[in-house]
Design a protein that fits this description.
alpha+beta, Arc Repressor Mutant, subunit A, Dna Ligase, domain 1, 2 domains, 3-stranded antiparallel β-sheet, 3-stranded mixed β-sheet
């Protein structure tokens, strides 16, 4: 059972609107810069905090990048899914991988772990970047 969605503050709503207005995954720094450019008086720490709350509530997706950063994106899909992300341009495509969840459950049980979760991030080069378009 998931936790109830928290009530958002004015700044939390502004962060959510900024993520919704973004194409693809964006870092907290990029979202903060976008908000500041739009005249929103919000600090970077506040943006980080609200992004984490939105991700915890499954309102936005969080993607862990190779360099250790986290990028965020608003997804219209409300069921569990994964993304394939282009390493060059950042384009992302949602994909369903039901077998991965089953595998994670079996693997965790096999070694005595309970209540496993998983995170899968797939990176590649999109068709447009492959052709240099």
């Amino acid at each position: 059972m998931s936790a109830p969605v928290r009530k958002r503050t004015r700044q939390g709503e502004a962060v959510l609107r900024a993520v919704q207005a973004s194409d693809g995954f964006r870092s907290a720094q990029e979202i903060h810069a976008q908000m500041r450019a739009a005249g929103e008086a919000v600090g970077l720490t506040t943006v980080y905090r609200h992004l984490q709350l939105l991700a915890d509530d499954h309102v936005i997706d969080a993607l862990h990048l190779d360099d250790g950063q986290i990028a965020y994106r608003f997804c219209t899909t409300d069921h569990h899914h994964h993304h394939v992300v282009c390493r060059q341009c950042g384009t992302s495509v949602e994909i369903d991988c039901p077998d991965i969840g089953d595998w994670a459950q079996r693997a965790a049980r096999r070694v005595g772990f309970a209540a496993p979760t998983h995170r899968v991030e797939v990176f590649g080069t999109c068709p447009e970047c492959q052709t240099g378009a």
